[in-house]
Amino acid sequence: MSTTTLFVELVVIGLHSILWIGILVLTFVGYQNLAWEKLLTLNLAVPVLGITYVLGIVIDRLSDLAFISQDHRLRKMHPLEHLPPFLMMRFFILNKSKDTYEQLEYTRSRLRIARAAILNFAMMTLAAILFVWAHQSATPARTHRLLASLVIVVVGTLLTYFSYESWVALTKTYTSSVIAAYQVLQDEENKK
After folding, report:
1. For a tag site, which of 33, 65, 144, 156 has the least CB within 10 Å?
2. Sequence-ordered list of residues with C-beta below 8 angstroms from that of 134, at least 6 positions apart, any chain
């Protein structure tokens, strides 16, 4: 995987994170008195990109920790008993076929984005609900807040669920692809 690809992956994860963190900040600080024209300038682009990248790293690690046991459980659904450890198979593939390894890493990159999106969409849903209840003026009826909250919960739950299902499907695909690539390359190695 190229450095650029990894950078973009972490920036995408970080952008999702910065959205819900921004909503939380606006929930507690307020948004009415912000000077938006000063905040949305090119001078802030580089620092925001740096913060976004760091957030991407943090959320990627947190999502990895949150789903590591389920990742191992999904991997064990494949026949691994007569194979080396998963990491060793990946290194073997890298050593024997960089093209195959790059293709597998593309799937792994999508997998990591989907895994982080599970946490990000869940947090975005919670942040949006807090924002609605903290900043709705007293004029709208309570039913408007409840309706807005219901819409947020439904949309947020769907996004979180689809991210989860994508992660599961990509994890299964990645695992079976690594195993298949390892076995093909191992067979070619044995024929030499």
Report:
1. 33
2. 27, 28
**What's the pLDDT at 109?**
93
**What Cα–Cα distance (Å) separates residue 130 from each residue in 16, 21, 26, 134, 173?**
17, 12, 10, 6, 37
**Which pTM was predicted?**
0.86
The C-alpha atoms of residue 118 and residue 24 are separated, in whole angstroms, by: 18
- Per-residue H/E/C for 33-79: CCCHHHHCCHHHHHHHHHHHHHHHHHHHHHHHHHHHHHHHHHHCCCC
Tens of pLDDT, residue by residue over 92-105, are 999 999 999 999 99
pLDDT tens for each residue of 19-49: 999 999 888 887 776 666 666 676 777 788 8
Instruction: Work out the burial of residue 34: count CB atoms within 10 Å of its CB; fewer than 13 is exposed, 13-18 middle, 19 or more buried.
Output: exposed
